[in-house]
Amino acid sequence: MLLIRLRIVEAAHLATPVLLVKRVRLSLGPGDPLTNPTRLLWLLPILLLTSVSAKADTASVYVNGSYAFASYGYGIGPYGGTLNGSAASFYCIDFNHDIVGNTGWTANVTSLAISGTGTRLDNPTIYTEMAWMITQMMGTSDQTLQAEYQWAIWSLSVGNNSAAPHDYYGTNASIIGDAQKAVKGWSAGNWEILTPKGNYGQEFMVLATPEPKSLLLLLVGLAAFAVFALRK
Fold first, then answer.
1. How far apart are CA 215 and CA 57, in angstroms?
2. Which letter, b or e, does each residue of 155-187 get, where b requires 16 or more Cβ atoms within 10 Å of its Cβ?
3. In 10 A of CB 64, how many CB atoms?
4. Parts of the chain with a pLDDT under 50
5. Per-residue model confidence (pLDDT) at position 29
6. Which of 13, 86, 98, 217 lies 20 to 30 Å from 231, alpha-carbon distance?
7. Sign, Cα dihedral of 132, 136, 138, 144
């Protein structure tokens, strides 16, 4: 049986009070946005963009047990599964926890740009280095290189855990050194960290994509904005 990281193991009635209200007259000048419909329209795209950028704080993670290939008894990512019911590719950044295929959990979603609180490592710099290494994994078809990056990521994930993964390829230190240099000024893009809310589950990284409903809302809003603007 092959262990993957994932390590896959089978497994009244009250009198109405009188309220006295002092009326206040609000005077709006001609330049106030509330008196100018055209200016109000300009607020619509901003509000819609805000709704698109807003992300749920939690997500439903499900892993189906698939992985790219094996290295020394462990599965190298990406792992297959779903995120909130949609197909997803997960990159494991956690060597401290075992999971079983065909299981799931609820995870906190943290943007890499604000990683820290709520994550297992609580270290934005390390997560950025991991994201850089994952990006390198994605940019090569050489399975040996992919495995080297994965093992280097796992070595970063253990912290003070004495059960550190083996350096099977002898490249962990050099790869981590490369990552430390490379992330200075490097843009990590749209990576998100998925941290299990409970004790079960592994911490993953995924590339964030706008939710379909949010995109539809944005498109409908922009279309309405265009129609109103053309009428002016």
1. 18
2. bbbeeeeeeebeeebebbeebbebbeeebeeee
3. 15
4. 8-26, 34, 40, 47-54, 213-214
5. 56
6. 217
7. negative
Q: What is the pLDDT of residue 13?
A: 43
The distance from CA 73 to its chain's CA centroid, rounded to whole angstroms, is 28
The position carrying tokens 């796992």 is: 154
CA distances from 111 to 55, 84, 127, 199, 218 (A): 9, 17, 10, 21, 21
Please give the Cα distance from 132 to 146 (Å, whole number): 12
Tell me the helix, strand and coil percentages in the chain, rounded to 5: 35, 20, 45
CA–CA separation, 46 and 124 (whole Å)? 29
Are the C-beta atoms of residues 168 and 151 closer than 8 Å to each other?
yes
DSSP state, 192? E
Give the total residue count for the chain.
232
Gap between the Cα atoms of 76 and 151, Å rounded: 9
> Cα(150)–Cα(147) distance, rounded to whole angstroms?
5
Output the pLDDT for position 159.
Answer: 75
Tokens of 52: 């698109």
How large is the angle between the packed helices 172-182 and 124-138, nearest 10 degrees? 110
What's the token pair of residue 56? Answer: 């749920």
